[in-house]
Structures are given as C-alpha cells and as structure tokens.
Amino acid sequence: MPANLSPEFKRAEEDFRNATTPQEKIIALELMMATIPKHKGTEKMQADIKRRLSKLRNTEEKTAGKRGDALHVRKEGAAQVVVAGPPNAGKSALIRALTGAEAEVAPYPFTTVRPFPYMMPFEDIQIQLVDTGPVAEDRLEPYHVNLLRNADLALLVLDLAAAAPVTDFEAALRAMSRAKVEFVRDFSGEAPEYGVKPKRTLVAVNKCDQDEDDILLDEVRAALGERFELVPVSCETEMNIEDLRRMIFEGSQILRVYSKIPGRPADLDKPFVAPSGSTVLDVARLVHKEFAENLRYARIWGSERFDGQKVQRDYVVHDKDVIELHI
Questions:
Q1: How far apart are CA 92 and CA 39, in angstroms?
Q2: What's CA 263's distance to the chain center, in Å?
Q3: DSSP states of 130-151 as a string?
Q4: Which end of the chain is more exposed for a tag (fewer CB within 10 A), N or C?
Q5: How far apart are CA 84 and CA 115, in angstroms?
Q6: Which CATH architecture has domain 80-251?
Q7: What is the overall mean pLDDT for the chain?
C-alpha cells in the first residue's frame, strides 16, 4: 500500500534532517507523527518515528538529570498535566485542593517561580500535575515551551475575582502561543498550522465562591464561547474539585487495563495505563515484549463485551477492561 505522504509530513521530515539540537529533532518528529497518514502502509514508518522520539526523549531526560536542571520535570505517573495561567489566578491553591500537597500559596503574584510536580490521586492511579510560574503578556518562561508542548493535557486557570478576568486570561493565552501551542477543547486529528502543536485544554474558572448568582461566570462563558470546556471551581469551598479530577483523567486521554493470568483472579490493584484507542497488542507490549511477539488472542472482561469473550490482537480496549493474554 503506498504511503501517500502529505506535503506537511515531507516538510517536517526535511526539518528533522536539518535539525541541529535534540529539541528541534523532537519537535520535527512530533510533527511527522501528527501529519503522517494513519494506515497499514505507514505502520513501519510510524513505529520508526515513535522509536526515534522515545530515544531522543530518554536522552534529553538523562542529560537534564546529569546537569541537575531544576527546570526539567520528568514525566511520572499515568499522565502529565501542566497547570498554567495569569498571575495570582490561584494555580497553587487549586493544585493543593486536587492533590492534598502543601503547594506554596500566597495572596500576591509570582509566588511560583519554577515548575514543580505534584501527584494527584484518581481512583487507583496517580496523575502528575506541574505547577508553573505565572504567564503574562510580557512573561513566558523558557521552560513553559517544553512543558506545554509535551504534556498530555493543559489545565489553564482563570481568576474570576480579578478586575478583568477575561482580559488577563487572553493575555496569558497570547503569551503561551509563543510556545507554538494551540489550546483546543478537543483534537480532531487534523493537522493545525505548520509547527503548531494542538493541546487538549481544560479551563478551571477559579474563585467562583465570590461570584453571586453566576453573573461573572456567565460573562466568561459568553466571552470564551465554545473554545474551551469551562469548569467553575472554588478552592475555598472545594466546589467541583472531584468533578475536575475526573475531567483531568478523561482529558488526559488514557485508560486503565487490568491483567489476568488464566485460571486466576484478575489483578485489580495495579492497572496498566495506555493511551485511549490502544489495542490488545498495545497492552501486550506494556506487559512484556515477548507477549507482543507471540500473542495469538486475548479474552476480555469489561463493559463492551460479555465476560471472557475471545478477541483478536487489533481489538480496541476500554477503560477498566480486564485482559487475559494468550500466546
């Protein structure tokens, strides 16, 4: 089957050849992955791009660790979510409400001066939330670029108690656009402007406890329209904090799969975490390389099939499926 590579893919491929730094190569490979046609004829090319990306990212992480880079945040947990927003929007207070950690909180801007990771529990997994320095029209830290481009989800915080909440939020968006990121409610799979990376985004409208009758919240909804999914929250009253945890999990586009050895109960304590849309074969790769190489079929327990139904390697798994691999 011919690959039928698009002009956008060929341009990204040329950028990769001309790249002189690991970060430039990573960005080019990400663009290649985003623009390559997804069909059987490009499966080997997709695998090669993923392999090169993994190798470069691992090298970057090891290099950052050796030089003691305090601004590098290694991905941990089931997903990485970057929390960003204008000064004094309440990012750190929101992270404290979501994680229970003692994030530094103060009633003045620029409390957070460097990125710092926290772990948010969600049912039986942990999701990493990265607190970042405030973003304003004239202030975007260099580390924001890598974090925003590589995170699984962006959680942007809007301060409803600010004098001009929408103006401050839009100014932060303009600043963050310098990271070549397009913040979107959802990603359809279509390639955005060349070089711009789409990023699934939630917007936490903070300090809603100070908004009587939702007057300001309605103004924010009218101004931002359908561009983002808005979540009204309050760190003081913990309004919608639990809902936000679930939305972060869903927005991270991941799922949990539990393993089962034939003839034994399923292991429901430690799920394997995979990207949404993963197949039985993808899960087998997470379990062990040999399982993927020798896999014949699997049996599934979950909401989409009757218990123990036999499925093939290309079956798409769902969150909380129990899978029994047969080689």
A1: 43
A2: 36
A3: EE----BTTB--HHHHHHHHH-
A4: N
A5: 10
A6: 3-Layer(aba) Sandwich (3.40)
A7: 86
Per-residue model confidence as pLDDT tens digits over 164-219: 999 999 999 999 988 888 899 987 656 567 678 889 999 999 999 988 888 999 99
Amino acid, res. 253: Q
Phi then psi for residue 50, to 5 deg, are -60, -40
Written as six digits, the tokens of 307 are 């218990």
Cα 198–Cα 205–Cα 199 angle in degrees, nearest 5: 5
Q: Estimate the crossing angle of helix 7-18 against helix 22-35, to 10 degrees.
A: 170
User: What does the DSSP 8-state code read for residue 185?
Assistant: S
CA 129 to each of CA 153, 156, 320: distance values in angstroms, whole numbers, following the listed order? 10, 12, 23
Helix, strand or coil for residue 44?
A: helix
Alpha-helical segments (H) within the chain: 7-18, 22-35, 43-66, 91-99, 142-150, 165-176, 215-224, 241-251, 280-287, 289-294
User: Is residue 25 within 8 Å of 16, Cβ to Cβ?
Assistant: yes
Q: Which regions in the chain score pLDDT beneath 50?
A: 67-68, 106, 108-111
Sequence letter at residue 249: F
Domain positions in the chain: 7-66, 80-251, 254-326
Predicted TM-score (pTM) of this structure: 0.77
**All residues at 6 or more sequence positions from 317 whose CB lies less than 8 Å from its CB, including other chains:** 255, 257, 274, 278, 279, 280, 282, 283, 300, 302, 323
Q: Judging by beta carbons within 10 Å of its beta carbon (0-12, 13-18, 19+), is residue 172 exposed, middle or buried?
A: buried
Which residue shows structure tokens 């931002």? 224
Over residues 280-294, the pLDDT tens digits come to: 999 999 988 887 888
Instruction: Please name the residue that has the structure tokens 């909804």.
Output: 221
